[in-house]
Amino acid sequence: MFDRPRSGERAILVHLDFPQENNREELDELRELVVSAGAQPVAVVRGSRRSPHPRYFVGTGKAEEIRVAVEEHNAEVVLFNHVLSPSQERNLEGLLKCRVLDRTGVILDIFAQRAQSHEGKLQVELAQLKHLSTRLVRGWTHLERQKGGIGLRGPGETQLETDRRLLGARIKQLKKRLDKVRGQRHQGRRNRKRQDAITVSLVGYTNAGKSTLFNRVSGAGVLAEDKLFATLDPTLRRVDVGTGEHIVLADTVGFIRHLPHDLVAAFHSTLEETREAELLLHVVDASSDRRDENIDAVNIVLNEIEANEVPQIIVYNKVDMLPDTPTRVDRDEQGRVWRVWVSAKTGAGIDELRKVLHEVCYQQNNEEDSANEREVDDLPGNRHIAGVYD
């Protein structure tokens, strides 16, 4: 669709420091994203500004520095650790003579590579098309009217208008297909509710170890890699939590700081597994220096998909990477479970986690049912879980 510079794997990374908290990003996280996307970072251009430059996002001097770095390292793509406007991307590509992608574009590219299921591919394509629809003008320099031969002459429509129309038709088609898939997922959830199955969903920052934990608890064997967004397609497994009682455990896509809105909208049907769960296990990389900020980032996305009211237990994972940190279960003054410390890699603390799941999903729930039956019946379509809170 686009007449664009050919992309490659040699990448220049651009990172600016801003005083505003909502504009801050981590350079190390960008490197992880780039490696996950399959590119090879060859140089990093850093700088600081009070606010983005309207034309190049960076200043004109910094833009020239990036151009020199592209020529020096024979780079084929420049990746910004920030969100660029369509005009900024277009201006930068004209100056640098190579492809330019912002943070959102990199994340979308990773998702496009990782999507395996039919639903996942539809969701990623929808997100990509929504993102590209605002950048369609970049690919076209021939905006003259289309004209035919004798008897076919007329004003017609520009090539750009044609592509926008086709793009809009494809987006409409994808939405219709995803609505059908959403209906199938909704039917599956209704069937589980009829069977009185308790659904527990794993959520957390990307690369926190959710899939490894899922495999350890359920024995599912889903893909678990030390890469960002290794899991896109949700997987559900029936898990025995003791004394013959079971839950349905769901592994879901990881979240990230400033997750693109188009991506959240496209993955709405998948994220409904999180919103409709009775309990969330919020998996946190305990070894990360930014674990508290990552928790906040996940809670922001949960709020965006209206899952912030679902009870959750924090599971601190990767304690094997923390010296002198034992596996344990933390409780509040009322004896309610607050946090669980485990290592999904070694299996340490997994038995305690199973016991917690049984206690929260069955023992405490049954006690609450018998003590407050009328209040539980008033909850429409939801199984009440006592003793768990955000």
In short, what is this structure?
With 390 residues, the protein is an alpha/beta fold.
Q: Could you describe the 3D structure shown?
A:
The chain has 390 residues and is an alpha/beta fold. It is 42% helix and 17% strand. The chain contains 12 helices and 11 strands. The chain has helices at 27-36, 60-73, 86-96, 103-114, 118-133, 159-194, 210-218, 261-266, 268-275, 291-304, 350-371, 373-377; strands at 10-17, 40-48, 77-80, 99-101, 199-204, 235-242, 245-251, 279-285, 312-317, 328-331, 337-341. The strands form 2 sheets. A 7-stranded mixed beta sheet has the order 6-7-5-8-9-11-10, sandwiched between helices. It has a 4-stranded parallel beta sheet with strand order 2-1-3-4, sandwiched between helices. β1 (10-17), α1 and β2 (40-48) form a beta-alpha-beta unit. The two termini are 46 Å apart.
| Radius of gyration from the alpha-carbon trace, in angstroms | 24 Å
Main β sheet profile: 7 strands, mixed
Number of helices: 12
The helix/strand series, from N terminus to C terminus, equals: EHEHEHEHHHEHEEHHEHEEEHH
Mean pLDDT: 79
| Strand fraction | 15-25%
Strand numbers in spatial order across the main sheet? 6-7-5-8-9-11-10
Helix coverage percent: 40-55%
Q: Which shape, going by the Cα principal axes?
A: globular
- How many distinct beta strands? 11
Uncertain stretches of 5 or more adjacent residues: 1-7, 138-154, 379-390
Look at the helices and sheets and give the structural class. Answer: alpha/beta
Query: Terminal Cα separation, in Å?
Result: 46 Å
